[in-house]
């Protein structure tokens, strides 16, 4: 039903675009270009901790010339890439935008569904189908395109398909990186064939140009805060990168090289290389109406997962990202003019430290093994209900899904089984909270900040029967050792992100009141003179309005 509803949404958007266009004279925006920069996994404290190490024109452009919000906190529990990007683009939470997680379990199909999958729109070059079909709200970019009668354009670029697709919305153009061949691709949802400028850029093999040199430290080792955090046993880099500097990139297996490249700062530089080509070909901000350019830099996330956020690699990456941002802003100034460009920088979520790193310092931490705790849960359910069947069918972060057919065959009440699962989970060390679907749908939950964040992350058709919350610093994912470090919880290290604005009519300042990233979309809509996205529940940030 959700897919049909979203198809209907797309048709409505298209109809409004055709029927309700306004003339250029009646549509006026204060800027020629809106640039949204999302740094995947950039925790809110990181830019400020390293401010004095940054050069001119990157982070410092935003910090010194614009307005920053020091306490931007996601108000949903599932701090994951899809959920975060969707909240930024739509101003909504999971009930509104539909993306409760990167993946969810479909009980009817008895399989995991990827948030951007769409078999009807294959990836260029023959990859799996991708589109925004599962995104159930319009985005601020969609509303701008509608309000301008189609004259405004939205372009979105990222290493990750979900990041680009979500930021591109239903009416934009999205491009992302393919680790199978080192190229940037799209899907038939956007183009029947790759544009000529993309084909030409790919043909030059830009990704291959980074293989010759290893990833070396940008500065003298003594200058680094985490100089002693190199070569740690729990780090999990890809390919032949290794755990210490310098990290060799060259690899005779090209697929391994293209995957390893993502775990280096060069991946963000490659993304910027593609953005340069896009700006030259599409000329965003130089047409008759305001355009949107959304860029999600993903290397910080890949490096954080592989080495942890408190690593020498993460620190060096942040310094290199600052240089990449400075290059981006110079490009925008040269091509459009920063005086005609509104720039926003934020993140989709934060990051927890490697649990072993925390435990070594005397704070309780650990790793959950889903296979193990699912066996424990099912064993407990067998004893409670006198059955030899596994009633807990699947775990997909952050929910446990019941085998509803088995529950029905046994004549059990779903709510009773859900409560039993929650009780079993809370008997396992390392879990803090558990919420049942029945209770969430009925509004039976504590009046607590934690419960409010779980409610904001819960989707009635896509979330599990029991939503689990680990204790602080406990790693929870499908694979207990799939990464060195993980995010995805409701704790501050995962919810706290930067939120920075710079551009015409944006004053200089630092705002310390708590705000939410869901406020971004309605703020941009107000800036652009459009209605907020259909699922927006945020409020405009008055400190940065013109």
Structure description:
The chain is an alpha/beta fold. The protein folds into 2 domains: 2-101 and 108-356 and 490-515 and 523-544, Alkaline Phosphatase, subunit A (3-Layer(aba) Sandwich); 366-471, 2-Layer Sandwich (Gyrase A, domain 2). Helix content is 35%, strand content 15%. It has helices at residues 2-19, 46-49, 59-65, 81-90, 94-97, 140-147, 161-168, 196-203, 254-261, 266-282, 299-307, 312-335, 355-359, 370-385, 404-409, 414-426, 437-442, 449-457, 492-495, 520-528; strands at 33-39, 67-73, 103-106, 111-114, 154-158, 173-178, 183-185, 291-297, 341-346, 366-367, 392-396, 399-402, 431-436, 466-470, 474-475, 496-502, 509-511. Mean pLDDT is 94; it is low at 1-5 and 11-29.
């Amino acid at each position: 039903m959700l897919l049909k509803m979203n198809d209907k949404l797309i048709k409505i958007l298209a109809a409004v675009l055709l029927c309700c266009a306004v003339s250029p004279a009646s549509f006026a925006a204060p800027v020629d270009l809106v640039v949204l920069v999302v740094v995947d996994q950039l925790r809110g404290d990181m830019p400020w901790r390293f401010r004095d190490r940054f050069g001119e024109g990157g982070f410092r452009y935003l910090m010194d010339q614009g307005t920053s919000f020091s306490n931007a906190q996601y108000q949903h529990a599932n701090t994951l890439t899809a959920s975060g990007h969707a909240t930024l683009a739509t101003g909504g939470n999971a009930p509104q935008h539909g993306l409760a997680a990167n993946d969810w379990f479909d009980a009817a199909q008895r399989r995991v569904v990827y948030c951007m999958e769409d078999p009807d729109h294959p990836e260029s070059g023959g990859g799996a189908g991708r589109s925004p079909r599962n995104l159930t709200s319009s985005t601020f970019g969609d509303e701008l395109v509608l309000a301008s009668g189609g004259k405004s354009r939205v372009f979105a670029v990222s290493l990750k398909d979900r990041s680009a697709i979500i930021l591109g919305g239903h009416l934009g153009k999205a491009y992302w990186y393919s680790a199978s061949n080192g190229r940037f691709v799209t899907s038939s949802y956007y183009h029947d064939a790759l544009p000529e400028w993309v084909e030409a850029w790919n043909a030059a093999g830009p990704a291959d140009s980074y293989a010759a040199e290893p990833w070396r430290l940008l500065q003298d080792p003594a200058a680094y805060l985490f100089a002693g955090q190199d070569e740690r046993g729990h780090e999990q880099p890809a390919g032949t990168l290794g755990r210490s500097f310098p990290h060799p990139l060259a690899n005779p297996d090209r697929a391994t090289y293209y995957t390893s490249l993502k775990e280096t700062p060069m991946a963000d530089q490659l993304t910027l290389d593609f953005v340069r080509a896009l700006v030259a070909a599409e000329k965003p901000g130089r047409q008759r109406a305001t355009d949107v350019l959304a860029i999600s830099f993903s290397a910080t996330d890949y490096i954080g997962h592989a080495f942890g956020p408190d690593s020498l690699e993460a620190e060096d990456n942040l310094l290199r990202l600052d240089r990449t941002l400075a290059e981006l802003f110079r490009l925008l100034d040269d091509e459009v003019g920063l005086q005609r460009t509104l720039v926003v920088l934020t993140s989709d979520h934060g990051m927890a430290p490697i649990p072993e790193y925390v435990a070594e310092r005397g704070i309780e931490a650990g790793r959950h093994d889903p296979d193990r705790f699912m066996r424990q849960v099912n064993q407990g359910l067998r004893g409670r209900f006198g059955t030899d069947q596994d009633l807990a069918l699947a775990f997909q972060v952050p929910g446990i899904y019941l085998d509803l057919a088995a529950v029905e065959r046994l004549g059990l009440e779903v709510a009773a089984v859900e409560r039993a699962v929650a009780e079993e989970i809370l008997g396992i060390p390392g879990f803090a909270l558990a919420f049942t679907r029945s209770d969430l749908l009925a509004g039976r939950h504590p009046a607590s900040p934690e419960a409010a964040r779980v409610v904001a992350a819960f989707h009635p058709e896509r979330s599990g029967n029991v939503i689990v919350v680990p204790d602080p610093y406990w790693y929870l994912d499908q694979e207990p050792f799939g990464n060195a470090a993980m995010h995805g919880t409701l704790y501050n290290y995962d919810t706290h992100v930067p939120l920075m604005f710079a551009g015409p009519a944006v004053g200089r300042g630092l705002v310390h009141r708590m705000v939410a990233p869901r406020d971004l979309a309605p703020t941009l809509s107000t800036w652009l003179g459009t209605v907020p996205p259909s699922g927006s529940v945020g409020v405009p940030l008055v400190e940065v309005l013109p």
